[in-house]
Structure formats: C-alpha cells, structure tokens
Amino acid sequence: MPSLHARTRLSAESIFSRMSRLAAQRGAVNLGQGFPSTPPPAFLLEAARRAVGTVDQYSPPIGLPALREAVAQDLEVQPEQVVITCGATEAMFALAQTLYGPNPGGQPDELIAFEPVFDIYLPQTVMVGATFVGVPLNLSAEGWRLDIDALCRAVTPRTKALIVNSPFNPTGSVFTRAELQAIADLAREHDFWLISDEVYDELYYDVRPVSLRTLAPERTFTVGSAGKRLDATGWRVGWIVTPEGAAPEVAGLHQWTTFCAPAPLQAAVAEALGIARTSGFYDGLRRSYLKRMQLLAAGLRDLGAEVFTPQGTYFLTARLPGVDAERLVTEGGVAVIPLEAFYRTQPAPPEMLRLAFCKSEAEIEEALRRLKGFLSR
Fold it and tell me: How far apart are the first and last CA of the chain?
C-alpha cells in the first residue's frame, strides 16, 4: 500500500480540539477554546433567514459584491481590494499560498511570526513548503511587548513575510503605533510582505488598535473575521484586504481550495456589518466582554494567580502554579489551554495558562468555583 504524505503529521488533534472534546466528555466549563456561549445578534440571524432561499448559489470566488462593498466601507478601502474567504483561517492559508513557499532557487522562503503563536501559522507555513521562524515577545510585570531587536535579528535574505496579530491571540496584547511603525520600517528596509491578522479589531478595551495597513499599505494584507466581530465563529466568513492590484491573484488561489464562502451567510454579513457599526453593537460587545474579563481576572487573582490584563481579544494569560491543564479538565471540571501549546521554537514561560472569557458570567463564576476546589485538594 502507498503511504500517506509526510504532511499528514500535521493532522494530529490540536490542543484546542482536545480540550473541547475532554470538556464535553467530562461536563467541564470550557474556558479553553475561544467560541462565545452567547448567541449572535438578532439582526444577523434575521438577515440570514432572509438570505436563505434567495442567495443560495455560488458567489464569485472573490466574494459577493455586496459584502465586498460593506467590508470596504467599514475599513475605508476600495471594494476592489477585498477578497471574501471561508473564515480567517482560510484567508491565512490563501495568503500562505500567495506569498511564500520554495523560492526560485529551490530554497524555502522564511515566514516570521511572534511567539506565543496562534496555532495555524506554523502548519500552514510547512504545508506551502516554507520555513517558520519564531520571535518571542517579552513578558514582564507590565505585560507582553515586542522585542524589536529580536525581530531584527530574525530577518534574513530569505524572509518573505511577517505575520502581525494585533490584538494578539493568545496574550490579548495590542501593539502600539510606535511598535507597528518599527515593523513597517523594517519591512520596507528588507522588502518583505506584512500579513496583519486583525480578526479581533473590534475587541479592545482602551484605545482603538492601529491597523498596520495604514502604515504600510503597499505591502500589507489585512485579515478580518465576521465570526469574531459578530459572535458567530461557526459561520466561517472572513476577508482579506490586499494592497492595490493584488486581490485577483489571491482570489484565484482561493478558488482552488473552497471556491467561495457560503453565499447566504455572505449576504447576511453584508447586511449586518452596517447595522453593527451604526447601532452601537460593537460598543455593547466591548462593555460586555470587559465586564466578564474583569470578573475572571479578579477571581483568578483571589486564587493567587498573576494575571496579565489583556488590552484586546477575549483571552487573558495568567501564571497559576500547581495547575496541570490535563488534570484540571479531567479532575477539576475546567478546560484551559497551557501557554506552552503556543510555543514552537522557544521555551514557554512556566506555569502560564490562556483562558477565554467569551463565556457567560455564570459559566465564569462556576469555573472559578471549580478551580478553587481543585487548588484546595
């Protein structure tokens, strides 16, 4: 029998799927995987009901014109720059195929990303034949920050692209304008692409994050997510904003994977984005998540944890000695993600966890009650 390709080694169950599976089996409170426990807004669901039965056939691979227009208006770009994808994960894979791989000389291009790193970046890099290069963020009592010197040392003549995630999963940190400007300047100096993963662009708790696209529009591809904005992570509607002129090539590769995102959901999101912006939905979403983040952070501190307060996303990181994530989910009834799962080339800071607060207040309170019981054993 022929063997499966070696890339299937990348198909092992992820830590997120494993923790969610164990949580379901054990009846645990799931603070591991980042999906909301609250329903999407009514205006989104109503838009979807109107679209089903009306917009049911393939859209153009580049996306429904109405959704491209809505994204462009929301982000203040041209519709011709927008490509609609099956969620942000597929957007990132389309960009991996577009921007890096084996170079003409046969050597693999290099893709740089910051560690702790969101789990899809490395396997997608390997799948297109490129090399992943990790650059660690600095962690201090003040939180997570960019180490620009370490980034400069990581750049080589083979560097083809850098992924910047702000707000940052898993840390919840937001890069400052000065940090992003330093990244943009470095990219221009060494002539590499920038991929700005901005799926949490509306989930921030202080100053609105700066979009890297505004500092280096000629080389930045921006990724966004309707699922993160509208509490509908299973809808799988995302987008890419490309530099001018690049959208047809990105859409051309996207057509060979999923062809198009689900057409009725594209239509629903096109309608919902404008309502979300003008109705104050995002303001309410931020207030709700801020309240839940404060509830979780205060409860963890009461249990002796060192909490690193996030500036965005719906995740926080905390140092909590004596907690093994596997034992916690199977014996304590709470699922979390050990931060070591987000490191590939560097050692992880010890005793660190990522916890999701996109859950109900009742779920967070129950998780804290169970965690207290687990620690008191």
Answer: 52
Question: For residues 51 and 268, is the Cβ–Cβ distance under 8 A?
Answer: yes
pLDDT tens figures, 263-304: 999 999 999 999 999 999 999 999 999 999 999 999 999 999
Q: How far is CA 251 from CA 121, 257, 264, 265, in A?
A: 20, 10, 19, 18
Per the CB < 8 A criterion, the answer to whether 375 and 303 are in contact is yes
Residue 30: DSSP 8-state: E
Please report which confidence band the pLDDT of residue 248 belongs to, taking 50, 70 and 90 as the band edges: very high
User: What is the rounded distance in angstroms from the CA atom of residue 298 to the CA atom of residue 319?
Assistant: 14
What's the CA gap between 66 and 265, in Å, rounded?
Answer: 12
Peptide linkage before 167 cis (omega within 30 of 0): yes
For the stretch 18-28, what's the b/e string if a residue is b when 16 or more beta carbons lie within 10 angstroms of its beta carbon? bbbebbeeeeb
The DSSP code for 194 is E
Domain residue ranges of the chain, discontinuous segments joined by +: 6-40+281-375, 42-278
Residues 6+ apart with CB under 8 A from 90: 236, 238, 254, 257, 258
Do 239 and 83 contact (CB within 8 A), yes or no? yes
CATH topology (fold) of 42-278: Aspartate Aminotransferase; domain 2 (3.40.640)
Residues in contact with 289: Cβ distance below 8 Å, sequence separation at least 6, in sequence order: 203, 205, 314, 357, 358
As a whole number of angstroms, the distance between CA 154 and CA 173 comes to 21
Residue-wise pLDDT for 312-354, tens only, equals 999 999 999 989 999 999 999 999 999 999 998 889 999 999 9
Q: How many CB atoms lie within 10 A of CB 176?
A: 16
User: Which residue is associated with the tokens 């994977």?
Assistant: 257
**CATH architecture label of 6-40+281-375:** Alpha-Beta Complex (3.90)
Running DSSP on this structure, what letter comes out for residue 260? S
**Alpha helix ranges (H) inside the chain:** 15-26, 42-51, 65-75, 87-99, 121-127, 148-154, 177-190, 226-229, 247-254, 263-278, 281-302, 325-327, 361-375
